[in-house]
């Protein structure tokens, strides 16, 4: 389904782009593409109500409930313009936080519009900005320059965290029937999908996709070599034994520091200005694969009591390789106590995220710091 959607979406995007440009410059106008933009539809329903306009407006809402924010990657001309910029700039992306202030921006924009004034949406509505820029208006050209700078540094951050239309559609997209999700059995946490995502909605550490921000461009699927990015109804995750999570630990830790004193590798550190409780620091050492003293000495249950065998299968973090830094020395392969790092001759080492427990041995032996340790929100007991 994802591959069919990806190619279909590309064809529709090109068609809409041609129609949008043709409509702006009056070359031809066989399909009124601007008549199905959300803000103009809402304005028309308020000023000159008709059932046809209401049906079109509701149609966009239903589209978001079924497919998510496909409007943003197929029908929005400003979104297509940003996509063109990303191709020209050849930008790579990283995870962005879902900015909550966008709801306030959307509430002000649509509240004033419903109240009878288009004053606010003129400055922020994607359709209006595109039309202003395409026709050479000063406001539009200024917005175009700012948008280009934003795309250069942040990708389609405007779409994800500023656009009022995107904010409204995103709330519906959270409940969409069709979502982008990561098949965790296939994902190797290489990060290619996250770097390709134009809105930064992929959290590769936890292997999740924020479908509120996702614009259904499916570029992630196009670069995934393992078929881990899928489009559809995500299967329910099978319950696994939970070893603990950050919130539970923060609520239970007494900061008695017994674990700090008994840790032979000295990677458990006392609370400080950044960490309200004891915490792990891999900068100088790693977690000894043959040790579980902290589990035995914790009096409060913040660190769960685990046998050595269970401790060796408890995932407390995930190691990741940055191929832009890695020199392919292979030291991490020999140092891994679980022997789950593989490396083909002349290739980069591959760390299986479903087998890594996050001990940090590979991180400490790496001579160029090409390996990073990523926290997990939920610790879990691995199958083996």
Could you name the ranges where pLDDT drops below 50 across 5 or more consecutive residues? none
Oligomeric state as shown: single chain
Main β-sheet description: 3 strands, antiparallel
Please state the average pLDDT score. 86
Helical region count? 19
Shape: elongated
Q: Can you give the helix content as a percent range? A: 40-55%
What's the alpha carbon Rg, rounded to whole Å? 25 Å
In order across it, which strands form the biggest sheet?
A: 5-11-8
Q: Which class of secondary structure composition applies to the elements? A: alpha+beta
Element-level helix/strand string: HHHHHHHHHHHEHEEHEEHHEEHHEHEEHE
- Work out the count of structural domains: 2
Number of β-strand runs? 11
Question: How big a fraction of the residues is strand?
Answer: 5-15%
- Cα end-to-end separation: 33 Å
How is this structure best described in words?
The protein has 384 residues and is α+β, with helices and mostly antiparallel strands. It folds into 2 domains: 2-173, no CATH class; 242-381, Alpha-Beta Plaits. It has 19 helices and 11 strands. The strands form 5 sheets. The chain has a 3-stranded antiparallel beta sheet with strand order 5-11-8. α3 (51-67) packs across α11 (164-173). It is elongated and about 75 Å long.
Overview features:
Alpha-Beta Plaits, two-stranded antiparallel ribbon, 384 residues, 11 strands, 3-stranded antiparallel sheet, single chain, 19 helices
Blueprint of the fold:
Blueprint: H1 2-25, H2 38-47, H3 51-67, H4 70-74, H5 77-89, H6 101-114, H7 121-124, H8 126-134, H9 138-154, H10 157-161, H11 164-173, E1 179-182, H12 192-196, E2 202-203, E3 208-209, H13 219-223, E4 229-232, E5 242-245, H14 246-252, H15 258-262, E6 268-269, E7 279-280, H16 293-297, H17 308-311, E8 314-321, H18 331-335, E9 341-342, E10 350-351, H19 361-365, E11 371-381
Antiparallel strand pairs: 1-4, 2-3, 5-11, 6-7, 8-11, 9-10
Helix pairs in contact: 2-3, 3-11, 5-8, 5-9, 6-11, 8-9
């Amino acid at each position: 389904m994802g591959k069919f959607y990806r190619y279909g979406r590309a064809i529709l995007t090109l068609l809409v782009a041609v129609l949008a440009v043709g409509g702006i410059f009056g070359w031809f106008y066989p399909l009124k593409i601007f008549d199905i933009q959300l803000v103009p539809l809402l304005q028309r329903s308020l000023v000159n109500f008709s059932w046809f306009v209401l049906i079109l407006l509701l149609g966009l809402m239903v589209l978001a409930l079924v497919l998510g924010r496909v409007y943003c990657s197929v029908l929005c001309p400003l979104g297509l313009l940003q996509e063109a910029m990303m191709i020209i700039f050849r930008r790579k992306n990283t995870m962005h936080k879902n900015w909550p202030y966008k709801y306030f921006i959307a509430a002000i924009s649509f509240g004033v519009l419903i109240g009878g004034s288009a004053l606010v949406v003129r400055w922020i509505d994607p359709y209006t900005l595109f039309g202003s820029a395409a026709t050479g208006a000063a406001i539009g050209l200024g917005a175009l320059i700012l948008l280009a700078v934003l795309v250069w540094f942040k990708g389609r951050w405007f779409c994800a965290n500023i656009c009022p239309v995107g904010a409204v559609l995103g709330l519906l997209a959270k409940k969409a029937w069709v979502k982008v999700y990561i098949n965790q059995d296939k994902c190797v946490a290489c990060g290619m999908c996250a770097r390709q995502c134009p809105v930064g909605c992929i959290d590769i550490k936890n292997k999740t996709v924020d479908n509120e921000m996702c614009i259904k461009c499916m570029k992630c699927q196009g670069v995934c070599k393992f078929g881990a990015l899928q489009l559809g109804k995500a299967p329910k995750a099978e319950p696994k034994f939970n070893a603990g999570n950050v919130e539970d630990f923060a609520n239970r830790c007494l900061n008695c520091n017994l674990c700090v004193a008994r840790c032979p590798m000295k990677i458990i550190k006392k609370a400080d200005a950044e960490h309200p409780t004891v915490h792990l620091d891999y900068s100088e050492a790693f977690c000894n694969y043959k040790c579980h003293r902290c589990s035995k000495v914790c009096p409060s249950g913040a660190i769960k009591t685990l046998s050595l065998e269970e401790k060796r299968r408890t995932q407390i973090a995930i190691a990741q390789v940055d191929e832009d830094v890695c020199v392919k020395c292979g030291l991490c392969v020999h140092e891994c106590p679980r022997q789950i790092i593989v490396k083909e001759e002349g290739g980069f080492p591959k760390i299986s995220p479903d087998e890594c427990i996050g001990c940090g041995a590979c991180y400490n032996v790496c001579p160029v710091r090409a390996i990073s340790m990523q926290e997990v929100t939920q610790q879990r007991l691995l199958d083996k």
